[in-house]
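Hi V.,

You were right to ask for the full record rather than a summary. Here it is.
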Amino acid sequence: MSPERNSTRPAYAAHGLIGVLTPQANTTVEAEFKILLPRGFGMVNARLTSSKAHIIERLVDYADTLTAQCRQFGNAPLDTLALAVTGTSYYLGPSREDSLVEQFERDGIGTLVTAARATCAALAALEAKRIDLISPYPDELTQKSVGYWISRGFSVQQVVSIKNSEHSFHPIYALSADASDIALERCALSGADAVVMLGTGLPTLHAIAARTHWTGPPVISCTLALAWQAISSCAQNPPDKDTLEQWIRAQHWRHKLLE
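Predicted structure:
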């Protein structure tokens, strides 16, 4: 962000303020970010909106209109922008996603952290190459996701799908906090280096906090990875394994989850 925008620190974000871009019907990101953010860091949220009827069309539209969507933040003194949607990255692909991030820097819009790239950074910090995926997505989006992770250099060992009732208000956002428990148990002995709970709409923090001492591979979610890297960006520190493992162990956020 420009020096002018960071000249005054907000009262509730002395260490950093994150502008979070959330899909229009997502009911999970804001709640999990408020639990995950350490003391002294704050967030303001903007809704990614699209008039497109189909979820795939909306995901592509978010990328096409992202610069305009950021205008919702006005002149808030943001330190980092966090794109809290993974499906857009799947349809952009790595090359276009990387170009989008570079464009934001080049045009002076700000530092953009995407949920998908943050997840890649978390997996790299864990030295994880073989991954299991827990997917709440429709089949088409799940397959697009698999292709994305493979193109980023990861080997997908297995995909465990979570399905919701057809009568819920949304196939992903209406999932319960314990929906991933059974799926995670299928990953305990898979031999993967890490388990990724996909998407930013799936509630994940209860499942992660419950497995801080389990014998299976490390469990991360796209939302946890996004918050972790956004904080690193605000502090202008490279993301590192020790800090990530503290986040995975819920050291600074477990008490807020229990509350």
